[in-house]
């Protein structure tokens, strides 16, 4: 289907769909088979096999994701970390050097600091908000620069235009984790980024019943990642493809609701006497508020905050809330609440967390699609002495 001229809501439903529809089905059937008939004389590249991510389920998803984010090609993977790790290995190769944002999701931070060295890859962290400092970290073997659209869990905003321009100037491959923003709020490929990565477990699926990842961007780079993924085996199985396909169809509606709810909740918390600090880009107190307004259509469903009473107050509040589910992950239809020091960033040392500004009492709040008034009333009762 030609996506030109259609708005994002329409693309989420119709982009990438097979024509004619398979058996007339309005949704793509689940191709559960692991064996597909191979015609005599066909080449190795014609083999259809789930590990090669080339079932109809994979192909439709790739086309839809590419259209939604404005990429030439796309690929789905078995997890967000499969997307991130495979992409980094594919573009850095043996002996490459990476510039990485200094405030990363814990799993990515651990992969960069602990695993890349075994592949002969080195790294340096950069303050992605200060472009004037990046040049000093360049090396002869620097091949890529990696940032997050909105950092987890402090919601920091890099100067993304400068990142893309810096990469072009120095012939680097630019990668961005766009999980927190999604194409609804931010389209980094249009700024010149080469690859946009997602933990599709989160907003792209949106129903807390799937682990998956996505790689979207320049065609030759996606194919390079795809080739390595075939060897590493990080494919997404057919039923997972179906769940992601289903989730993408409501992506725009869900994210816009979560944007509005998180904004209202952030403003409520910012005025509450029990709250010390709120991290959310819509707030004028956010250090990158003005920059975020120029980059994003919305600021996402995740916010974080510290309470005046520190860790003990955070623990007490999490025990008192009625609607949010205490647990890791984010981006689902239900609201989730957690302390990153115990979940997403538990693998980092306390010293590293504190250096980044992640206190043991920091609360991350992933807003679902419940009525924001109900969530605010619940938070209010949980914060009372």
Distinctive features:
Aspartate Aminotransferase, domain 1; 13 helices
How would you describe this protein?
The chain has 385 residues and is α/β, with parallel strands linked by helices. The protein folds into two domains: 8-248, Aspartate Aminotransferase, domain 2; 252-382, Aspartate Aminotransferase, domain 1 (Alpha-Beta Complex), CATH 3.90.1150.10. Helices cover 36% and strands 15% of the residues. The chain is built from 13 helices and twelve strands. The protein has helices spanning 8-14, 56-69, 80-92, 106-115, 160-169, 182-185, 219-232, 238-248, 251-270, 289-295, 310-320, 350-356, 372-382, and strands at 73-77, 97-101, 122-126, 142-148, 173-177, 195-199, 213-217, 275-279, 302-307, 325-326, 336-338, 363-366. The strands form two sheets. The chain has a seven-stranded mixed β-sheet with strand order 1-7-6-5-4-2-3, sandwiched between helices. It has a five-stranded mixed β-sheet with strand order 8-9-12-11-10. The chain is globular and about 75 Å long. The mean pLDDT is 95.
């Amino acid at each position: 289907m030609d996506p030109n001229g259609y708005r994002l809501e329409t693309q989420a439903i119709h982009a990438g769909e097979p024509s004619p529809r398979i058996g007339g089905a309005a949704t793509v059937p689940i191709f559960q088979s692991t064996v597909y008939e191979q015609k005599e004389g066909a080449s190795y590249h014609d083999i259809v096999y789930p590990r090669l991510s080339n079932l109809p389920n994979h192909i439709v998803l790739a086309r839809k994701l590419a259209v939604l984010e404005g990429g030439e090609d796309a690929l789905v993977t078995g997890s967000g970390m499969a997307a991130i790790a495979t992409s980094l290995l594919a573009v850095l190769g043996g002996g490459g050097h990476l510039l990485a944002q200094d405030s990363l999701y814990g799993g990515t931070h651990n992969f960069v600091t602990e695993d890349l060295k075994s592949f002969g890859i080195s790294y340096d962290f950069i303050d992605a908000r200060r472009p004037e400092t990046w040049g000093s970290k360049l090396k002869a073997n620097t091949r890529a620069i990696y940032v997050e659209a909105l950092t987890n869990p402090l919601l920091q905003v890099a100067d993304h235009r400068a990142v893309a321009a810096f990469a072009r100037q120095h012939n680097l491959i630019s990668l961005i984790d766009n999980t927190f923003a999604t194409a609804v709020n931010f389209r980094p490929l249009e700024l010149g980024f080469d690859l946009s990565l997602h933990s599709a477990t989160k907003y792209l699926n949106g129903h807390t019943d799937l682990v998956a990842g996505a790689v979207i961007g320049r065609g030759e780079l996606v194919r390079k990642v795809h080739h390595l993924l075939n060897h590493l085996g990080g494919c997404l199985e057919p039923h997972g493809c179906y769940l992601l396909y289903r989730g993408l169809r409501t992506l725009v509606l869900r994210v816009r609701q979560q944007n509005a709810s998180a904004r209202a909740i952030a403003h409520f918390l910012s005025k509450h006497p029990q709250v010390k600090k709120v991290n959310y880009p819509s707030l004028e107190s956010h250090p990158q508020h003005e920059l975020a307004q120029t980059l994003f259509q919305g600021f996402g469903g995740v916010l974080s905050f510290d309470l005046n009473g520190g860790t003990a107050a955070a623990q007490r509040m999490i025990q008192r809330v009625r609607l949010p589910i205490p647990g890791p992950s984010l981006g689902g239809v239900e609201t989730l609440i957690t302390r990153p020091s115990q979940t997403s960033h538990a693998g980092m040392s306390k010293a590293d967390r504190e250096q980044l500004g992640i206190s043991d009492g920091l609360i991350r709040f992933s807003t679902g699609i419940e009525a924001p008034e109900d969530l605010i009333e619940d938070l209010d009762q949980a914060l009372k002495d």
